Amino acid sequence: MYSETDLQSAIAAGAISADAADAFRAHVSTVRQSPMVDEEQFRLLTGFNDIFMAIAVVIMLFAVGGIGQAITPLFPGPPPFAGLLIAASAWGLAEFFTRKRRMALPSILLLLAFMGGLFEGLLGLGFMAGLLDNGSNEVIGGIWVAGSALITAGGAWLHWRRFKVPITIAAGAAAAAATVAALIVSAFGPNDPRMGDVMLGIAFVAGLAVFAFAMWWDMSDRSRETRRSDVAFWLHLLAAPLIAHPLFSLIGVTDGRMVGVPGAIGVIGVYLLFAIVALAVDRRALLVSALAYVLYALTELFREFGVVELNIALTALVIGSALLTLSAFWTPIRRLVVERLPGSLQARLPVSHLALA
Fold first, then answer.
1. How confident is the model over 222-233, as pLDDT tens digits?
2. Is 10 helix (H, G, I), strand (E, B) or coil?
3. 210, 235 contact by CB (below 8 A)
């Protein structure tokens, strides 16, 4: 399977003409009865070799981490040398598998290993310096964690400049959000009774910020023909749970405070709002992230009405039917939603609805 990024690369290399690429897109849209932009494509596998190499990469990094951990076998915190060795090895492997071979799945794993190893190594150095153990100052410890997350975000930026892996921007955004969260936690203190609500607020604001950032990338490629669309996909995937979880926590889904029928109706109402937003921006991440909450709410709703034995089956039937219908008729339903939006907003959204106008 070839992605839009591959198609653009072929055009840039002169392998095919831009007109031929447009004709190919039109043909695929006709065959699928859906514009290619609505398919929300992203490349995860280029072939089974990706899976083979991903397994080899995981084994290699596991071995490197084991060697690093053996350097400090009795270390109380995250082993710093293990993390730093994993990060260095992931960068080195990316020079071949990402920069030269452009292998999708191994590139994603190497990026995550690089950032995870870098963050773990920095935290380990904090423990080694006595800044993060039980007797250390909480404010100083929080600042060290924030600094570690910030350096990790900087590492993501360098990784993006070097390798251009689409998920890198989302990983860097997550590290930046973690930086802000760590600074706020250090200001309040981790044992503050308000910390749970504060963290939910931070997650919600971060989710909105990441969503806005994702839309900035999306609006720069409304036809979804470049790598920028892939970057936006991963940002939407990050933003969705950050937005959904605090909202459903406020309704009481996560801690059992949801009050019968009104609470279930509230969950369904929020999910319908998510569906409208997802249709407008042509991204399905919000619907997937909120799915578990609406499944729970519908199960409780059927139980309230006395349908105890079949509540799970009926819930699956309702949600499954709704999602299948939405998937099958995504383009015409989206067109109905977008046509009712202001013209200035329509001009910023993906252009797929124009293809069927």
1. 888 888 989 999
2. helix
3. yes
Burial level of 11, CB count in 10 A (0-12/13-18/19+)? middle
**Rounded Cα gap, residues 305 and 14, in angstroms:** 64
The type of residue at 276 is I
Six-digit token pair at 24? Answer: 């190919």
Distance CA 128, CA 140 (A): 14
Say what the pTM is. 0.85
Query: pLDDT (tens digit, 9 = 90+) per residue, 299-339?
Result: 877 777 776 677 788 888 888 998 999 888 998 899 999 99
Query: How many Cβ atoms are within 10 Å of 335's Cβ, its own excluded?
Result: 18
What would the mean pLDDT of 275-282 be, rounded to a whole number? 93
Residues in contact with 144: Cβ distance below 8 Å, sequence separation at least 6, in sequence order: 123, 126, 131, 132
- Cβ-proximal residues to 232 (8 Å cutoff; 6+ apart), any chain: 214, 215, 217, 218, 221, 283
The candidate with the shortest Cα–Cα distance to 88, out of 147, 155, 148, 29, is: 155
